[in-house]
Predict the 3D structure of the following.
Amino acid sequence: GAVVSQHPSWVICKSGTSVKIECRSLDFQATTMFWYRQFPKQSLMLMATSNEGSKATYEQGVEKDKFLINHASLTLSTLTVTSAHPEDSSFYICSARDFRLAGEYEQYFGPGTRLTVT
Amino acid sequence: GENVEQHPSTLSVQEGDSAVIKCTYSDSASNYFPWYKQELGKGPQLIIDIRSNVGEKKDQRIAVTLNKTAKHFSLHITETQPEDSAVYFCAASRTDSWGKLQFGAGTQVVVTP
């Protein structure tokens, strides 16, 4: 149980184009999803918190117009990197929680998406 | 906000020996402390966690201890095996912040046969 998938697992795009990454909770309903980015040999940095049916809350320094997050259903959140540039190349990871389960603290992570912008 | 410090950054151990990773946190309201294992090119995998009302938790070869007064928690891996080689991250969160995790910098563990 508690499986989170991401699609695609890797993507290469040209500078200036937009890329959409999907995050799905496969066997539970995710009331809250989180998006992280991770640069090589570094820790995970939280980008935004996404609650189903409402606007995402972005961390300080993360451009909300560049990283569009949509959490339209209880099992799907998407991250769109708009007008991507080489500095956006990174490993993007999502995670999900189900707050409705009393006492559940766990966050389940997806396998990540490697984005390379050329 | 919360700040989590993790040490050491790298840890080399001989197969069969024990490994200990330590983390400190700054926010006394944090009440959930998970540990994640991340292999190269993969997402983090939860290996053990502890809540603030518990001082110690063990799961086979892995154990975590928490000292709320000192605001530090540690991961202990006994009888290490080559497959334990990975990057380990500690994290802290509080339930009134949607459970947002603040991660430590990570520890690269290398277990040599």
User: Anything to note?
Assistant: The longest strand of chain B covers residues 19-25. Chain B touches chain A through 23 residues (CB under 8 Å). The mean pLDDT of chain B is 95. The CA atoms of residues 42 and 86 of chain B lie 11 Å apart.
